[in-house]
Structure prediction request, 344 residues.
Amino acid sequence: MRVLLTGHQGYLGTVMAPVLTAAGHEIVGLDSGLFAECVLGPSPADPQGHRVDLRDVTAEHLAGVDAVIHLAALSNDPLGALAPELTYDINHHASVRLARLARDAGVRRFLYASTCSVYGAAGGGDSADLVGEDAPLRPVTPYAESKVRVEDDLHALSDGDFSPVFLRNATAFGHSPRLRADIVLNNLVGHALLSGEVLVLSDGTPWRPLVHAADIARAFAAALIAPREAVHARAFNIGSETNNVTVAEIAEQVAEAVSGAKVVITGETGADPRSYRVDFSRFRAAIPGFDCEWTVRQGALELADAYRKHGLTREDFERRFTRLAVLRAGRDAGAVDETLRWRR
Prediction:
């Protein structure tokens, strides 16, 4: 299958591309390259691809494509807060435009990387409170709101020939050749190694569902070839109930993985309204035999090993591997304009 993978030079795309290639697919990448240099360790071998902003995609980029896996986005809440209008322009409008172009080009399956953040302040403390895909969506950030809007619009585009699938990923973690240090487990492990403290700024009580980048890649690979009736125009939470944990519990796992590190919960940012425990059973039912392989503890150990092996520095941790810092540095240097496009 010839697959267009948007965001192939991002944190998840860099892990996903080789998984798809190993499964026998021909991968064509599409990425603006804003985060292509966020590499820790050896440079990854990227598939062939188009260097183009998502907002500038044309029908030519979809020629000969059988399926689209759409990862490209402004990828976290601080970026959405920095420029909410750009979040909607890129994450919402450009994503729906891509889907229309794909449908017009005869693409039959469109896998959309959504997020469990759409559940927002769903709460939940015991098993009865697990949030399923049919629960009310309560996004509390522009990032999560943009994902809800795309799901709605893609659902309206679905028909007998065009099958969108919405994969609501839990919060990602784990090593990728293109690192992100601004997601919770990756961040806490970095702080622990560099300072000896597992620093938690919230009160530690919010629930977070976590999922390893490699498990996300496996889930997309499975959804790509699943029977149409199993996945057509459906939403799926991607993750494992085992990895429904509080931020404080994540911190304790990190302290166990990084010898000598101490958990420090300052509580200075108060209680985070984003708190939810998630039910992941629908995807397992749709894809028999699928289950996530990575636990939070395993991920913390993997990250600590990778950080040590590749010599993570505080400068890199705070600037090169933090999305907001990368974009601000690009704008300050004049390389990126106010719309987050490369200057020519």
